[in-house]
Amino acid sequence: MRSFYLYRLACNICICACVHLLFVSYCAAASRNAVKSFLLDDRTVYDIPVPVSNGVTTIMFPAASSVTRDPAQKADFLITFKPNTYYFSIRALKSDAKDGINVIFNNKIYVLNVQASDKPFRSVTFFTETSSGTSFNDSAFPPSKVRLLSLLDKAKIYTVLEKQASQQWPSVDYAKPARIMLYKDFRVLIDEIWRFDPEDTIVFHLLLENNSEDAILYKPQDISIRVRERIFYQSVADASGVMPPQSTTHAYVAFTGNPNGTRAHLSLDNAFNVLVPRVFPLEAKN
Question: Whose C-alpha in 20, 221, 259, 271 is 20 to 30 A from the C-alpha of 228?
Answer without folding.
Answer: 221
